Amino acid sequence: KRSFMAGGKTFQLSEKALDNLISQVCSPALNEGLLKANERMYNHLLYGIAVTEFVDGKKVNPTIALIDWEHPENNQFHFTEEFTVLRSGGVETRRPDIICFVNGIPLAVIEAKSPAGHGKKEPTIDEGISQSIRNQFNDEIPQLFVYSQLLLSINGHDGRYGTCHTPMKFWAAWREEDITDAQMYAIRNHPLSTEQIDALFAHRPPADRNWYQQLIAAGELAVSGQDKLLISLLSPERLLEMTRFFTLFDKKNGKIVARYQQVFGIKRLLERISTRRPDGGREGGVIWHTTGSGKSYTMVFLSKALILHDSLKQCRIVVVTDRIDLEEQLSGTFASGGELAGKKDKANAMATSGQMLAKQIGSGKERIIFTLIQKFNSATKLPECVNTSPDIIVLIDEGHRSQGGENHVRMKLALPNAAFVAFTGTPLLKEDKTTNKFGPIVHAYT
Fold first, then answer.
1. How far, CA to CA in Å, does 357 sit from each of 365, 378, 386, 397?
2. C-alpha dihedral, 356 to 418 to 311 to 46, nearest 10°
3. Which residues, at least 6 apart from 324, have a Cβ–Cβ distance to it below 8 Å?
4. Residue 222 has what pLDDT?
5. Which one has a higher pLDDT value, 415 or 406?
6. How many angstroms separate the CA atoms of 307 and 300, rounded?
7. Beta carbons of 394 and 318 less than 8 angstroms apart
8. Closest Cα to residue 299, out of 319, 281, 283, 284?
9. Can you supply a Gene Ontology BP term from the record (predicted)?
10. CATH superfamily of 258-445
């Protein structure tokens, strides 16, 4: 958009402001390394860029959005192949196979390898991943990856995805849960217009167009693993969703993009938390994700998603564990993932005693609180330890443990309208007490 609002009126951006905006987007500083530059650009994408304008002689600083996150249809989506990028040395070039642009910004880069694998037996997906990792090196084309949010490697049959600086071993497969097989099939076989076919084949040898026309004439096409990955991650709404809600920067582990079980677990949780019980409180439930599936990061992604969710951004979070080492681990993950702003914020979030917990619950303003379940025993003996707000989300780590006794009852009395969400990696039986206490299984990954 080339306009901004001030005093209830719409004004056009000045040439100077436009130049400044373009300069900030097109000239990213790489002196602190690619990851830092990528994080800065991510924040520009997420929150917009402030510019200086003058309205009736008064200085104003409107924030200009680069992407309309709320209305995907207001953005422009393009892709191109064999996009030439000059290497850092300024002589040689690299040509990533496919680049996907949103409003002219290259958000996704795809390496597409031959299914034949050059006559080798090695998996060609790994070749694409290696190439993508190499292209991020300082002497390669890091300037392209300043903008990248999703990186894909495909081989005609299947594929995996990662993001900026993802090590090869963490590139992941995807399993779709929301888009049905029928919808996938319809998208795969949706006929291209004459204009689209011309755009794809006008610059190619006639044999390529003939091959495509014969392929289509032979009947409807089956949906491959590659098709599922591309449709799942690169449909406009999902690409924006993955970028906005399911990407974070961790001080220890770098940039992280969520895996499919985290994405769908959080989506189901947001739906559940948004639902009210007959008494006005929020609904909760159980997230059953097997050990090693990234449960701590799922909590951090949820915390981030709540802030960006219009109807839930006012919610506070209480993280409950039953062991000091788990409490330290989780608070460390939240801090490292950017959900606690520095040491002071982390210190304020920790309920170091029952008395402090009572104060935090009753009159505190902390957005996130960490406590041991045992502290509710002494906290609830204090009259201030009660909060009837429905805008409190209680996340219970390893919810199958330590939740059967008096402390659990006290916790629910202190927070009668909160949503209680239990996370567990332990196999659950049909009549497991965990589900009875917290509600149904909201999402399972076993």
1. 12, 9, 10, 17
2. 50
3. 372
4. 94
5. 415
6. 11
7. yes
8. 319
9. DNA restriction-modification system
10. P-loop containing nucleotide triphosphate hydrolases (3.40.50.300)
Read off the pTM.
Answer: 0.92
Span(s) in the chain for CATH 3.40.50.300: 258-445
Q: Which two tokens stand for residue 134?
A: 């190499």
Place of tokens 């958000």: 107
The 3 state secondary structure assigned to the chain is CCEEEECCEEEECCHHHHHHHHHHHHCCCCCCCHHHHHHHHHHHHHHCEECCEEECCEEECCEECCCCCCCHHHCCEEEEECCCEECCCCCCEECCCEEEEECCEEEEEEEECCCCHHHCCCCHHHHHHHHHHHHCCCCCCHHHHCCCCEEEEECCCCEEEECCCCCHHHCECCCCCCCCHHHHHHHHCCCCCHHHHHHHHCCCCHHHHHHHHHHHHCCCCCCCHHHHHHHHHHCHHHHHHHHHHCEEEECCCEEEECCHHHHHHHHHHHHHHCCECCCCCECCEEEEECCCCCHHHHHHHHHHHHHHCCCCCCCEEEEEECCHHHHHHHHHHHHHCCCCCHHHHHHHHECCCHHHHHHHHHHCCCCEEEEECCHHHHHCCCCCCCCCCCCEEEEEECCCCCCCCHHHHHHHHHCCCCEEEEEECCCCCCCCHHHHHHCCEEEEEC
